[in-house]
């Protein structure tokens, strides 16, 4: 009765939460029922319940599909490069911004680094396609300094695509990735740094002994999210930058699922791929959480 009385007392707050709960049920939980088509031979003329069961046949096809494994290779290659660069550089940039004296230059650096995040990949992709074309800005710069004799279209070279995808994603998101770290550093007690300076600690020693240890929970959380999403490469970026010439290196799992499901209408196969990747992602999430417990004195930052 006490719990019911407390709920009734806070009924205005519960009413405010109800639309969000309803949204999650309708768009996040009810669609889970559709996962069963991964075990069926579903076509556009069937309903989910009437489609015939095929068991694990779709998953067997996945294991024998060379195009799927090509997409897995590209996804892992691009994601691991993004993880290696995109995880560390925001931390370094955040520390550099934090150590700047307050002023116009600090605000300018923050603003310039944040701006690309607010542009869609349609806009940024169009810019990259123009810059990397035969007569684009990138080739003009390289030819002006004598590094190239004639321009080439870099997006048509599949061997360059991974680095184009990684560096363009870094350009778009590195500034935005500093926000959590800057917020965490702003909460560090300044007396820690004052005591360290009195003891003769250099700036690098202060960063290593004070800043980084106190940022460990945030760093651990970002690491968990990055590792768990390692099989989910950026679909928007891929659809904008992929072409028939670089597809062997640019096709990732998300674009493969999109192409097989929506473009070719093989819904059961696409769902099976998506379900398998989701299961592996959950496993990676749990493993990374267990590993990061060691950085937080045995405490989990998510569970």
Automatic annotation (TrEMBL):
Residues 72-288 form the ABC transmembrane type-1 domain. The chain crosses the membrane at residues 12-39, 76-98, 118-141, 212-232, 267-287. Keywords: Cell membrane, Membrane, Transmembrane, Transmembrane helix, Transport. The keyword Phosphoprotein does not apply. It is found in: Cell membrane. Belongs to the binding-protein-dependent transport system permease family. This is ABC transporter permease.
């Amino acid at each position: 009765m006490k719990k019911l009385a407390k709920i009734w007392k806070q009924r205005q707050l519960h009413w405010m939460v109800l639309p969000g709960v309803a949204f999650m049920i309708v768009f996040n939980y009810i669609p889970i029922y559709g996962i069963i088509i991964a075990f069926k031979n579903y076509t556009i003329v069937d309903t989910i319940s009437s489609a015939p069961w095929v068991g694990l046949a779709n998953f067997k096809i996945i294991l024998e599909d060379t195009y799927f494994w090509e997409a897995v290779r590209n996804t892992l290659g691009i994601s691991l490069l993004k993880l290696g660069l995109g995880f560390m550089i925001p931390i370094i940039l955040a520390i550099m911004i934090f150590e700047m004296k307050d002023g116009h230059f600090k605000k300018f650096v923050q603003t310039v680094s944040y701006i690309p995040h607010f542009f869609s990949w349609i806009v940024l992709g169009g810019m990259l396609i123009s810059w990397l074309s035969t007569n684009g800005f990138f080739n003009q710069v390289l030819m002006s300094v004598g590094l190239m004799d004639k321009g080439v279209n870099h997006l048509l070279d599949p061997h360059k695509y991974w680095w184009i995808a990684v560096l363009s994603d870094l350009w778009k998101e590195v500034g935005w990735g500093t926000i959590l770290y800057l917020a965490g550093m702003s909460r560090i007690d300044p007396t820690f740094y004052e005591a360290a300076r009195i003891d003769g600690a250099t700036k690098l020693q202060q960063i290593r002994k004070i800043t980084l240890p106190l940022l460990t929970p945030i760093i651990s959380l970002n690491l968990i999210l990055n590792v768990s999403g390692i099989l989910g490469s950026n679909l928007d970026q891929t659809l904008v930058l992929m072409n028939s010439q670089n597809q062997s290196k640019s096709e990732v799992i998300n674009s493969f699922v999109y192409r097989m499901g929506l473009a070719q209408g093989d819904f059961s196969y696409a769902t099976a791929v998506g379900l398998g990747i989701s299961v592996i992602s959950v496993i990676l999430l749990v493993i990374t959480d267990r590993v990061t417990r060691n950085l937080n004195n045995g405490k989990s930052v998510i569970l």
